[in-house]
């Protein structure tokens, strides 16, 4: 990760992140998938822990389709940089082949040589903006991260397009995380927290 002093360092969970990682591992062991809802304070590293988990699942497993949603273009860019850094700094011994890269929005893993028998992982991560009404349409998603959902200007596309596309199969990852905020997305987040 890139730390607060602008240095690239290994992602070693801080105490807050460690408790989230423990909860995810326990849930994965217990029910076979990760479903997390995090109400968080500013700057504890929750978004980084979630992105690390989505990266782990996508960069080290085949055929994983991951989608990450943020509230605006600037946040999409910041979160994508996190995924890009995770990928670029992977140990070469485990770093998968990258088929292509769409700056700021998508990392597609696989062999760039279409004539090679080894196709690579064929996994991908997309990062998109919440206001995109087609977010998740036409896909089956295995990992979903909704970052700062309380800040979304609307949650209709999330409910109508993204959530139906999210697989409930074993091994899938779903993380919804947010700080407190009063925007239209806060009602959905509040309702989810109350139900949890």
Topology of helices and strands:
Layout lengths: L14 H17 L2 E6 L6 H14 L5 E6 L2 H16 L9 E5 L3 E4 L14 E6 L13 E5 L8 H10 L7 E6 L5 H12 L1
Parallel strand pairs: 1-7, 2-5, 2-6, 6-7
Antiparallel strand pairs: 3-4, 4-5
Helix pairs in contact: 1-2, 2-3
Overview of this protein structure:
This protein has 196 residues and is α/β, with parallel strands linked by helices. It is built from five helices and seven strands, in the order αβαβαββββαβα. Strands 1-7-6-2-5-4-3 form a seven-stranded mixed beta sheet, sandwiched between helices. Helix 1 crosses helix 2 (46-59) and helix 2 crosses helix 3. The radius of gyration is 16 Å and the shape is globular. The two termini are 31 Å apart.
Give a short overview.
The protein is 35% helix and 19% strand. It has 5 helices and 7 strands, in the order H-E-H-E-H-E-E-E-E-H-E-H. The two termini are 31 Å apart.
């Amino acid at each position: 990760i890139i730390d607060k002093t602008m240095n690239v360092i290994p992602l070693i969970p801080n105490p807050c992140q460690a408790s989230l990682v423990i909860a995810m591992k326990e849930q994965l062991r217990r029910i076979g998938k990760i479903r997390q809802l995090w109400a968080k304070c500013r700057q504890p590293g929750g978004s980084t822990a979630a992105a690390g988990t989505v990266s782990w699942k996508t960069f080290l497993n085949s055929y994983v389709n991951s989608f990450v949603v943020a509230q605006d273009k600037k946040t999409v860019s910041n979160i994508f940089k996190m995924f890009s850094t995770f990928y670029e700094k992977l140990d070469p011994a485990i770093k998968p082949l990258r088929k292509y890269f769409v700056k700021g929005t998508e990392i597609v893993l696989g062999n760039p040589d279409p004539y090679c028998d080894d196709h690579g992982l064929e996994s991908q991560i997309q990062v998109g903006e919440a206001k995109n009404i087609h977010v998740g349409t036409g896909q089956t998603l295995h990992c979903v991260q909704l970052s700062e959902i309380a800040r979304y200007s609307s949650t209709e596309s999330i409910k109508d397009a993204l959530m139906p596309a999210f697989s409930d199969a074993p091994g899938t990852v779903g993380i919804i995380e947010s700080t407190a905020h009063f925007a239209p997305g806060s009602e959905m987040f509040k309702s989810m927290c109350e139900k949890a």
